[in-house]
Design a protein that fits this description.
seven-stranded parallel β-sheet, binds NADP nicotinamide-adenine-dinucleotide phosphate, 256 residues, Rossmann fold
Amino acid sequence: MMTADPTLEGRIVLITGAGGDLGAVAAEACAGAGATVILLGRTLTRLEATYDRIVRQGGPEPLLAPLDLAAATPEELSAIAGSVESRLGALHGLIHCAAHMDYLGSLRDVGDAQWRDALDVNLTGAFRLTRTLLPLLTRSEAAAVVFVTDSEAERRRSYWGPYAVAKAGLEAFALVLADEYDGAGTLRVNLLTPGPVRTRLRRKAFPAETAPGPAALAPCFVDLMRSDSPYANGERIAPAAVEPSVIEEEIQHVRT
Ligand SMILES: NC(=O)c1ccc[n+]([C@@H]2O[C@H](COP(=O)([O-])OP(=O)(O)OC[C@H]3O[C@@H](n4cnc5c(N)ncnc54)[C@H](OP(=O)(O)O)[C@@H]3O)[C@@H](O)[C@H]2O)c1
């Protein structure tokens, strides 16, 4: 897989949630295009499965970075940055795929722990990791950060709970950050809305849905990480067309 598409050769990209369905697609796509990837996530065995697939397909050996984004100490976050710098020397890209969604229902009924977990992973965790890695990223040529978001952040509909609230906060954080670097030419910050794709997280909300698999997003992740990326800064990228009637149908399914 390495020689087929060397678009990202020499680039170093960290992916959060790299043991998840979309995160694994992002990691394998970047490695397939020649990038050395750092696989960050909560469950080591899932990260190892992504690692094994990359190595089996001839990609550059990835670095494993097991980390619970909801509970990471400042020391653990700094250790990730330190290990990327000492072992790989640079960081060109950061793709935030990790997400937590364990509650669908009315905001009135959300428990403190459910609220906290959603905010801690989807918003605060992404903020703290990004802040820690910014000094490394901005030292690299054409660095890029991508936040994977959800159309529910913009729709702001009932029953999406703290997940949608956290994603809306994540979008605000991403766009403020994009604006802070706008014109500086050192960092591109973009949002990616994948649309419905069949993953573990999606199945929690829509167990009966037949959404397309996540593999179709692979070229988009590579394009976002390229030093000559077609994407500028502060863009909202939504490659998969979302069919509103399908979504409505599914929402009804969940409510009943
Ligand atoms: N699938 C869709 O239709 C869809 C639609 C819109 C947006 N998205 C977004 O796409 C992204 C990828 O999600 P997915 O659909 O691929 O779901 P997924 O397969 O469930 O992946 C989510 C990943 O996040 C990781 N994670 C959860 N809590 C964590 C924590 N505390 N610390 C570190 N990692 C943690 C999970 O790790 P573990 O392996 O340990 O559980 C898992 O690898 C998410 O940002 C999601 O919001 C997906």
